[in-house]
Every structure is written in C-alpha cells, then in structure tokens.
TrEMBL record:
The lineage of its organism: Eukaryota, Metazoa, Chordata, Craniata, Vertebrata. Residues 335-362 form a coiled coil. InterPro entries: Bardet-Biedl_syndrome_7_prot, BBS7_GAE_dom, BBS7_hairpin, BBS7_pf_dom, Beta-prop_BBS7, WD40_repeat_dom_sf. It comes from the Eukaryota. Residues 21-319 form the BBS7 beta-propeller domain. It comes from Galbula dea. This is BBS7 protein.
Length: 715
C-alpha cells in the first residue's frame, strides 16, 4: 500500500521547545482530536479544527517559557489532564483550560525533562532527577552527565516503578528508587525516549531511543539487564532525532514509528518484518521538528501526523485526499469553500498590512522625537555545535525564529570551512590579518529569502585552540545582530567512547601537585569536548576518548592531586602536557610532570595514518589528471586507447571532484599530523628536529610506509 499524505499548515504559536505538543484523546470513536501546545512565551494554546480553520478552546496568559508539556490522569483512564513544566514549577490544566495544580518543586534549576504516570511525577533538571508521588518527594538521583529525557516503564505492565534517564554521555541509566540499577550503552548521545508502540510493547519493557547524531534503536529494559533489539544507523546523514511517536497511519493494525529530526525531516518507519523497521515515508519541512503526534485532527475519519516546528508552526500530513472525486456539484461545493477561504485570507492579509504600516509610522515618529529610546528587537536562536564522528568535522547549526539575512563567521584559530550539501547560502571570504589580531577566518554567509536554518561544517586542528564566533543577523527591522561563541578545544577532534583497546602501545603522562579534584576536572573540560562541566561525584573518575580523524585513543584518570593520561598517539600526550602546564601556571600551581614514552606507539600511529595518506594522495593525483584527460578526450573524440585506470578516472571525474571539494585541506592536515608526530617524538627526548622537516615532507610525497617508519627511527 502506497502512503499518500497531503500537507496542511494549521496555526503558528510562539517558538516551541522539544516535546511541547500533544493531542488530547478523542471524545468519540471517529471524532477529531484537540491539539494542545506550549511555547517559549509561556502560553498554553488548545485548539480544534473545524472546516479547515483552527478554533481556539483556551489560551493561557504569557509567562516564563514552557520546557515540556505532558498529558496525565488516573491510570487506565483517558489521559486528558494537561501538565506543563515552567522554570522549576509544574502546572496542571483541565482540557477546558481551568488550572487545578501549581506545584513549586524543590529544584534549584529549571526543569528540562518531565514524565507523568498516574500520581507519579518524574522531573529532571540538568543533572538531577526527582520522583514525586502526589506532589510528595519520593526519590532523588544525581547523574554523571546531563539528562536529556526521562521515561518510566508502564506500571500496570511491569508492576514496579522503573525510571529510565537518557544521558548525554551515550548512556541510558535505569533506576530503582534513588539507586542506579544498571547502565545501557547506546551508539550516540540519546536526546529522546519513547515507549515502543506507545505502551512499551507486549512486555511493557521496550524503549525506543533517538540520538543527537541521528541514530534510532530499541532496547528491552528487563529487571536485571538490557536486551538490545534493533538499531538503525544514520546512513543518509540526516539530522539528530528530537521526537518519536507510535501511530497506525497505514491502517493495517500495526503501529508505525513516527520520527522528527532537527533538520526538518519527518520519517515513518513500518514493521513489515517482525524485526527491524523499514523507512516507509519521509517529508522535509524547512525547520526542526520539536514534537510529533499521530491522530485525527483536521477531519473525522482521516488520520494524520501532526508536527510542531521550532518557530511554532503546527503542520499536519493528512490521509485526506486533496482533490475529491465526485460530480460537478461536489467540485462546485469545493470551489466555493476554497473561494470563501481565499477571500477571508485576503482580508486578513490586508488588515495585517495596514497594521504593519501604522506600526511602522508610529515607530518612525517615536524614533525622531527628543525622548526617543532605541529598542532592539529580541529574537530566539536555536544553535548546536557538535562533532561528527564520520568525517571528524564540527557541524554548526543555527536556527532562527524568523528568516536569516546573513551570518558572519570569525575564528581566532586556523579552521577549514567544509562544503554542506543542504546549504544554499552564498559564502564570501574576507582577507584577515592573523598576526596582530589572531584572526584566521572571516566568512559571510548570505542567505536566500525565507531561510530560517543554516548548517555550516568546520574542521579544526588539534593543538590549536580558541574561539569561533557567529554573528547572526535576521531579516527584521531595525537591524539587530546576536553573537554566539563556540570553544575550539585543544583536543577538539576527540569524542567520548565507552571503552578502548588496552592492548595498544600506550604513552603515559603523569601529573602530581597541590590541586583539587574540581581544578583538574576544569582543566580536562578545557582540553576535551563532551566532558560534563559539573565535577563528578566520588573521589576519582576515568573517561575514554577516541580521535575521530585518526582512530587513536585516550584514557584519562584523575583525582585530587594526581592525574594520569594514556594515549597511543604521542602528539595527544604532547598537547595535554603543554595545555595542562599552562593552565596550572595561570593558577600558580606547581606541577610535577613525568612521562613514559613507548617507541612502538609511533610505528603504530604511522600505520593508522598511512592508509588515509595513501588514499588522499591518490585522490589528489587523480583530480590533477582530470583536466588533461578531458582535453585529450575532446581532441581525440574517443578514449579507448587509454589505459583502463585512466578511463575509470574520466568516468568517475564528477564524484572525484565532489569528494576533493568536500574536504579541501585533508592531505595538508595529514602531512601536518605526521610532522607534529615527528617533532613531538623527539621533543620528549629533548631534541629539536625542525630542520629535518623538509626531508620528511619529501619522503611523504613518495608515500612509502616502510621508508617513513625508517626515517622516524633513524632521525
């Protein structure tokens, strides 16, 4: 059965956060459902659809921004009470809009995630989880990393309260009371949790998770251990997952999985075989989807998927056919319906244009008066700066509630800007002086009309750290700009991992000194990405990392007065030694630094780099030959006389050029890493070998692995 869905835009509210839109249960079997949505202006809006128009049921007054919206009610009854998380408070409304609850929690931070099950309320701030029953404090847990979402297995199925926390360090933490029952490792930082099938499956123990790098998985949370069921990678390089729901949109009696992503793609996965879900349908919206629900909204008898986007648009994908089949009377009726809708929209548009003109005149008059005060219009920017494991680059995603005019990107460290397929903005580079101002990059992205989301990709160089700044200017009057800063860390291409290979040859760096646990933790946060800012509980901590570019690894273990860092890459140890010494000197702390260098690790790192080097050199050679081969093709008219390897270059020319363009400085980066490795190896021996670098570069051009290793050992 082919799925055909028609898009309908219903209504726009204020900027919306993740998981802030729900559908109230229908009153009859085929009746339409009411939509309830909370926005960052603090307004809860409930509306239904009649004859294609949004009809309000209730609307609350503005206030603090709404972080989450959930439905609740007594177990095994329709879940039609509306609960919203605002700051550290939870408010409850009936389906008619009457407020019946205002519960001020004892949380010192704002609520980030919420789940409701009967009389049980589960709340999470950044690192703190709290469980309340009938608004009385029951359990508390302090997480090791930021909590992104919370869920509880259905009590009526599993007969006990089992909360699950989705944490930034790629772990689902399963709790029992105030204690950790066990941890579930997942392939990326989990951003959203949902019960499989909406009820946890037959056992009630099945949880679907989505990650910030776009992966999707199902795990069964049993009383003693997790059982992974399936996992879907992000082959198409789509955005991170923000929302998940289960709904039978195909009408085949099996609920499909609805997935909303931060690049605006809405996906439907069906379960054709009992095991893995298959992608059945996708639809691209222009901005991130923060909530998704399946139900009957626009017209009774027609199911649809409702999505809420970042800027507050509520968009439906309905099974109702756009063109109805029928006689001329039916068509006439439809055209009259459409004509009345068009005329009402026209009058609304004229009214808005008049209002804009009046307000503009009023602003002009007030700005020219002697008592004029300049007002800067406020606007929301949703930004992410995340490391991609696949190509060792950072994605900078900027999303604005209104159209973007331009974005100026400035960096005080050398970085490469990479090509992004989805990016339609025009980029222009300005020359900049790197010497006096440490200004290495100045680029302007001019966006096309109605662009609200811009994605950039940058690749940094390890050991060079500083700040990347984005100046975002939207298309609003008077002109205003927001500056957002992102730290490029010394070991910026390292990513947290669950475990490392302990059999590799490792170099060790040991630190001892009069520093506290919090101080050394702050240094590690400064050096490495994905480390929680909060000092971990306990006396010591161990983190594992992997270099996304080379595949080398790092183990860092530290406590008060002592730190131990192990890596199979000497350059990683060298960068850590320099940066940690500098940070300690700033705080006037004496460090006793010792190191143990394993000579075998250099050979091991070179063997890791060499296949990448060989591939990039071959790619560069092929690209340089393309123009000459094409000229030959034009002159000769046919290329049958060429060797097969040259013919294949011509056949694949477009792909080769595309790949080369996507990562322009890849080869230079590899040369730089090998040069750093060479200098760092001898730096630990107290020898300066910078004069031998030109000779090393000659050997690199020859691309001989054994010759390269011999040069490193003989120097």
């Amino acid at each position: 059965m082919d799925l055909s869905l028609a898009r309908v835009d219903y209504l726009q509210v204020g900027v919306a956060a993740q998981k802030t839109m729900r559908l109230l249960p229908a009153s009859g079997r085929k009746a339409t459902q009411k939509v309830v949505v909370g926005d960052q202006d603090g307004v809860v809006t409930c509306f239904g659809i009649k004859k294609g128009e949004a009809v309000p049921v209730f609307k609350t007054l503005p206030g603090q921004k709404i972080a989450r919206l959930e439905l609740g009610g007594a177990l095994n009854t329709p879940q039609e009470k509306i609960f919203v998380a605002i700051g550290s408070e939870v408010r409850g409304f009936t389906k008619r809009g009457k407020q019946f609850l205002s519960f001020e929690t004892n949380l010192t931070e704002s609520i980030k995630a919420m789940h409701i099950s009967g009389a049980d309320l589960f709340l999470c701030a950044s690192y703190i989880y709290n469980h309340y029953c009938d608004c009385k404090d029951q359990h508390y847990y302090l997480s090791g990393d930021k909590i992104n979402d919370v869920l509880c297995l259905p009590v009526d199925k599993v007969n006990c309260i089992t909360p699950v926390l989705a944490c930034q360090d790629r772990i689902l933490r399963v709790l029992q009371g105030s204690d950790l029952l066990y941890e579930v490792e997942v392939p990326g930082p989990p951003t959203v949790l949902a019960l499989n099938n909406g009820n946890g499956g037959d056992s009630g123990e099945e949880i679907v998770y989505g990650t910030s790098d776009g992966k999707l998985g199902l795990t069964q949370i049993t009383g003693s251990k997790p059982i992974p069921k399936w996992e879907i990678g992000n082959e198409k390089k789509r955005g991170g997952i923000l929302c998940i729901d289960s709904f039978d949109i195909l009408g085949d009696g099996v609920k499909e999985l609805l997935v909303g992503r931060d690049d605006g793609v809405l996906e439907i996965y069906s379960f054709e075989s009992a095991d893995d879900p298959a992608l059945r349908y996708d639809h691209a919206l222009s901005e991130s989807i923060v909530s998704v629900q399946g139900g009957c909204v626009g017209k009774d008898g027609y199911d649809e998927i409702l999505a809420a986007t970042y800027s507050g648009w509520l968009t439906g994908l309905t099974t109702e056919p756009v063109h109805r089949e029928g006689g001329s009377g039916e068509e006439l009726k439809l055209s009259q319906e459409m004509q009345s809708k068009i005329s009402s929209l026209r009058s609304e548009l004229e009214h808005l244009q008049m209002k804009v003109l009046q307000e503009r005149e009023k602003y002009q008059q007030s700005s020219q008066s002697s008592t004029a005060v300049s007002s800067v219009p406020a606007f929301s920017v949703n930004d992410k700066f995340i490391l991609n494991k696949d190509d060792a680059s950072y994605s900078l995603i900027l999303e604005v509630q209104t159209a973007i005019d331009n974005v100026l990107v400035q960096s005080d460290v050398p970085i490469d800007l990479l090509d992004v397929d989805k990016n339609s903005a025009v980029v222009s580079f300005s020359s900049c002086d790197s010497e006096p101002n440490s200004n290495f990059l100045l680029a302007t992205y001019r966006c096309q009309a109605n662009t609200t989301r811009l994605e950039l990709k940058v690749r940094s160089i390890e050991g060079q750290y500083g700040t990347l700044q984005a100046y975002v200017t939207p298309r609003i009057q008077p002109k205003t700009c927001q500056v957002h800063q992102y730290q490029i860390k010394p070991l910026s291409l390292h990513q947290r991992t669950h475990s490392i290979d302990h059999d590799r040859p490792m170099n060790t760096l040991m630190l001892k000194g009069q520093f506290s646990f919090a101080e050394i933790h702050s240094w590690v946060v400064f050096c490495l990405p994905e480390v929680p800012e909060k000092t971990p509980a306990g006396e010591s901590v161990t983190f594992y990392f992997q270099n996304t570019f080379l595949g080398t690894q790092l183990e860092s273990t530290y406590r008060k007065g002592e730190g131990c860092f192990k890596s199979d890459n000497i350059s990683t140890i060298s960068i850590l030694k320099d940066v940690l010494s500098k940070e300690a000197t700033k705080r006037k702390i004496n460090l006793n630094i010792s190191y143990d260098i394993d000579e075998e690790s250099v050979r091991h790192t070179l063997k890791l780099i060499h296949p990448k080097l060989e591939y990039q050199q071959l790619l560069a050679k092929k690209v340089h030959l393309i123009d000459a081969l094409r000229e030959l093709q034009v002159h000769e008219g046919n290329v049958d006389f060429l060797l097969p390897k040259y013919r294949s270059i011509l056949e694949e020319a477009d792909q080769l050029l595309e790949e080369y363009k996507r990562q322009p400085a890849h080869l230079e980066r590899l040369y730089g890493m090998i040069t750093d490795l060479f200098i760092d190896k001898f730096k630990f021996k107290g020898t300066n070998v910078k004069t031998k670098v030109p000779l090393l570069l000659e050997i690199l051009d020859g691309c001989d692995q054994d010759g390269l290793i011999a040069f490193f050992e003989a120097a």
